[in-house]
Amino acid sequence: MRSRSRSLSSLLLVVVGLLAAAPATAATLFISNTKGESISVIDTTTFEVTATIPLGKGKPNRVVFHPDGKTAWVVYDKSHDLGVVDADAHKLIKRVKIGGNPYNLNFTPDGRHLLVLDWSSDTSNDEVIFYDLQAEKVDGRVEVSTWPAHSVFSRDARRVYVSGETAGDLTVIDVEKREVVGHYVHGGGDAMGLALTADGKTLYAAAGENKTIVKIDTATNKPLGAIALPGVVHEATLTLDGRYLYTTLRKANKLVVVDTATDKIAAVIPQKGYPDLVTMEPTGRYALVTNRWADLVAVIDLKTHTQIRTIAVGKAPHGMALRPR
């Protein structure tokens, strides 16, 4: 009996050791190819494209996952509708019309509502549309300034921050009341990217043509300062540990890395073709960057701030979304 117990204990130790040594489950990254009319599915462990999902006509652009990870939603710029993709089956299952000219999407963290950032058209205003997914109907609209572009929720999900692309501003919306509770104008047209610190106290906002990142105090919705960059800035994404802010300078074909402890530039990484969006993969070791006019995704080592490889995807990649696990 003792020999058998020792054998079982030894086997258990071996199994535990193997599990501890095994790599984390691979994450899945969806890349929407605007001219390729498809999604490229990337395994973030191997950095290989594992599938291609046809999306059909209409110029698919942004892609966003529902919080449950079962579906990804796609914005079509030309047909002005949305596509819903089954993430497991790798298949477009339906297209729906919400808003007149949708540009970008977000979901409330509880997954109950889809937020559509809608640009003005013959049938809509510049607004954020709240769409009840269970009831399948619009149950709120909040008008904002021209061309709402990116959005991010506060850590308690009570507020959502929305950048205004052409207005060069930031609008703060109370999610429950569906009303504007804060507004800050920085004046930098081509305003897009937003990044919120882990403690929720500071919001980094890309003030595009001002060539700066504005640091905003979320308690007051007023600026704490600005970080100068060497070009028109588009995207702003924090590393998972919050130590660095990755920004894209599309027209200059550069990634600029900012040290958040000093607000100084830590690195400049050349890119091949119009870098757009940045996503941090779950291990915190790499950043992935869409290069729209080079038909690739760049992989950046976060320790050295250097590009280590590229991933060939479809034509004109733009949107990217990491599947929730």
Quick gist of this model?
The protein is mostly beta strands and 325 residues long.
Structure notes:
The chain is mainly beta. It has one helix at residues 2-21, and strands at 28-33, 38-43, 48-54, 60-65, 71-76, 82-86, 91-96, 102-107, 113-118, 127-132, 137-143, 148-153, 159-164, 169-174, 179-185, 194-196, 202-207, 212-217, 222-228, 236-238, 244-249, 254-259, 264-270, 275-280, 286-291, 296-301, 306-312, 317-322. Strands 3-2-1-28 form a four-stranded antiparallel beta sheet, with no helix packed on it. A four-stranded antiparallel beta sheet has the order 4-5-6-7, with no helix packed on it. A four-stranded antiparallel beta sheet has the order 8-9-10-11, with no helix packed on it. The radius of gyration is 21 Å and the shape is globular. Mean pLDDT is 93; it is low at 1-23.
